[in-house]
């Protein structure tokens, strides 16, 4: 019988957590919805997110609530909310996945180099991590996003407001955490017997890093990524809510900002994007919690 | 101990310097737009733009501008005190405008902190002691819900449900009530809803955090020793367990207070509370870069100062900290 890899053990434990498993199914569905948003739009028969349906506004130009033609109602200039919520899912997931993915890539690389080679490389990387973690990164990110949100953009127009800046802020705020965690793990892994065994068999540094150490980091990387994704979804939404995030395509945060003055006259305007945001973040948090429990099973749980 | 405090002070000074440099880069080097044009208003004459350029010191080289900027924000270098620059929109001095709004933000933060500690700590303790009970699961479920909800969505829902002008159950002063209130009591009343909304998210974080810490602590050997000595469960949990589990909360609390004092921007925006966060939000909408720069610097200052304070405080309350 073959030994189970850490990842298999991890999955076996995670599978027992029914709530987390349902949340994972929800996320899978959400990703499908985001990918096939245009198809869903044509099947349900709703207009494009940017299209203004004037017939959905009443005689005074006020938006009408949910109807058969517009299941989630329309916003104050007649755009279909369901279509916009669907597109918001695309944006939200893309930005959070790319941002978190890049953070993991950078953080894992920096953390592995620091933890494996130690010495002055480690000192430099650890200092940079310290500075970044002590930094009010989000505040400076807000400043950066707003300084670049004028129509001229930043760096002579090279850095335009929108997704790029949001992803940049996500990477800046997330990767130091990843690097610190990975560095700690590698520092202890490199002293383990199996590394020594590999070395005595003549394995080089690269082989040890990629074939011996990295596989042991996969489970913690997945867990931490699943905890950072919801935080980054909220970050994108907050920046967009403040008007410095994404503006050229529908975003849940930006929809909530638009809805702020219309809570009374059009509740659906804030309700649907808000619920989409809440449920998405909740699902990711449930999965993250479940994964954390599966990685570090506490004594008080049945195994 | 003195050496430790001195090191922390140096570190904080270093951080503030680096933050000031980055802020300069963000607001004076990166933006492609011309600040003199932004300042001059609608369709200015080239002469006016030129005058403003000289006034703002933009005719000088970037390094010279940087030296002037550092001299302006350092109290002991500036000839006429700290100067955060002037708003493009109102031409007013930014720092006094921020200081004028500080009490509002302090009032909002203080109330919320008291409320979230009063809710989060007992809930976290009970959940840890009764792990796995229906009460624990309910509390942690609700906590996860509040952690997942962005504060501005909670705020909008609260206004929709409870605001006395548009709410379905009009029982609390709603949006912009703070600006209309003329007495301290009226202002406190206007803040009830923002306090609750802000506290909900943080109470949830603190309850989860304390629960996790306390569960870990209660498995320590010294807790077993305390039980073996025959101490009552109550004394074991409160005197031995909570005391150790609650110290990390101090760090968390200090950093959260620092962030909020720099401007509870989301909460102040949703409820239209005239604090520093709302000032920053308005400036963002108007692309009023000097105001945004000022609020960012001010907020960063609070965050660094609070983490310095927390580090020093922590060394006093936790004897395990190495100096």
UniProtKB/TrEMBL annotation, chain B:
- Please give the Gene3D superfamilies that the UniProt record associates with this protein: MetI-like
Location relative to the cell: Cell membrane
Keyword Cell membrane on entry: yes
Record keywords? Cell membrane, Membrane, Transmembrane, Transmembrane helix, Transport
Major subcellular location class: membrane
Transmembrane ranges, per UniProt, are 9-30, 104-126, 138-163, 192-210, 244-266, 296-317
Q: Which domain of life is it from?
A: Bacteria
Q: Fetch the Pfam families from UniProt.
A: BPD_transp_1, BPD_transp_1_N
> Taking every annotated instance into account, which residue ranges of this chain make up the domain ABC transmembrane type-1?
102-314
Q: Where is the signal peptide?
A: none
Membrane topology qualifier: Multi-pass membrane protein
Q: Which InterPro entries match?
A: BPD_transp_1_N, MetI-like, MetI-like_sf
Q: Does the keyword Membrane apply?
A: yes
**Similarity remark:** Belongs to the binding-protein-dependent transport system permease family.
Q: What is this protein called?
A: ABC transporter permease
Q: Which organism is this entry from?
A: Solirubrobacter deserti
């Amino acid at each position: 019988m073959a030994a189970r890899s850490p990842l298999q053990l991890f999955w076996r434990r995670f599978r027992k957590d029914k709530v987390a498993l349902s949340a994972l199914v929800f996320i899978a569905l959400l990703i499908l919805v985001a990918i096939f948003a245009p198809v869903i739009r044509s099947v349900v028969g709703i207009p494009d997110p940017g299209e203004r349906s004037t017939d959905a506004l009443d005689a005074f130009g006020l938006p009408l609530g949910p109807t058969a033609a517009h299941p989630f109602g329309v916003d104050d200039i007649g755009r279909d909310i369901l279509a916009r919520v669907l597109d918001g899912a695309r944006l939200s997931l893309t930005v959070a996945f790319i941002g978190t993915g890049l953070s993991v890539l950078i953080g894992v690389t920096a953390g592995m180099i620091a933890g494996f080679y130690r010495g002055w490389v480690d000192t430099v990387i650890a200092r940079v991590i310290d500075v970044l973690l002590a930094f009010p990164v989000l505040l400076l990110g807000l400043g950066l996003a707003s300084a670049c949100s004028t129509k001229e953009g930043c760096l002579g127009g090279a850095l335009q407001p929108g997704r790029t800046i949001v992803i940049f802020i996500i990477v800046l705020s997330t990767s130091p955490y990843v690097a610190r965690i990975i560095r700690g793990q590698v520092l202890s892994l490199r002293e383990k017997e199996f590394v020594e065994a590999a070395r005595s068999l003549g394995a080089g540094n690269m082989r040890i890093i990629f074939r011996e150490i990295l596989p042991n980091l996969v489970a913690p990387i997945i867990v931490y990524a699943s905890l950072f994704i919801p935080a980054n979804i909220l970050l994108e939404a907050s920046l967009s809510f403040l008007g410095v995030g994404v503006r050229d395509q529908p975003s849940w945060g930006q929809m909530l900002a638009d809805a702020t003055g219309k809570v009374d006259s059009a509740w659906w305007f804030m309700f649907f994007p808000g619920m989409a945001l809440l449920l998405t973040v909740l699902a990711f948090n449930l999965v993250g919690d479940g994964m954390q429990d599966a990685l570090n099973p506490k004594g008080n749980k049945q195994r | 101990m003195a050496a430790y405090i001195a090191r922390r002070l140096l570190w904080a000074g270093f951080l503030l310097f680096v933050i000031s440099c980055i802020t300069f880069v963000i607001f004076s080097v990166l933006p492609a737009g011309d600040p003199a044009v932004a300042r001059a208003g609608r369709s200015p004459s080239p002469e006016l733009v030129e005058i403003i350029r000289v006034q703002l010191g933009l005719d000088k080289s970037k390094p010279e501008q940087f030296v002037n900027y550092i001299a302006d924000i350092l109290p002991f270098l500036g000839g006429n005190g700290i100067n955060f620059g002037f708003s493009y929109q109102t031409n007013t001095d930014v720092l006094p405008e921020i200081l004028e709004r500080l009490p509002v933000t302090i009032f909002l933060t203080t109330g919320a902190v008291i409320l979230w500690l009063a809710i989060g700590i007992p809930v976290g303790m009970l959940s840890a002691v009764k792990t796995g009970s229906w009460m624990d699961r309910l509390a942690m479920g609700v906590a996860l819900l509040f952690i997942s909800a962005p504060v501005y969505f909670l705020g909008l829902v609260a206004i929709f449900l409870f605001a006395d002008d548009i709410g379905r159950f009009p029982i609390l002063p709603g949006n912009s009530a703070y600006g209309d209130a003329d007495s301290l009591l009226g202002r406190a009343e206007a803040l009830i809803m923002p306090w609750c909304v802000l506290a909900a998210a943080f109470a949830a974080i603190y309850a989860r955090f304390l629960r996790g810490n306390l569960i870990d602590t209660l498995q320590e050997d010294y807790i077993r020793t305390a039980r073996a000595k025959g101490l009552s469960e109550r004394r074991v949990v409160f005197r031995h367990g909570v005391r150790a589990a609650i110290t990390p909360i101090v760090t968390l609390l200090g950093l959260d207070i620092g962030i909020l004092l720099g401007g509870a921007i989301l909460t102040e925006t949703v409820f239209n509370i005239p604090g520093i966060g709302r000032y920053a939000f308005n400036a963002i909408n108007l692309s009023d870069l000097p105001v945004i720069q000022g609020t960012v610097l001010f907020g960063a200052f609070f965050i660094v100062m609070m983490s310095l304070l927390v580090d020093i405080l922590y060394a006093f309350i936790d004897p395990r900290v190495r100096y």
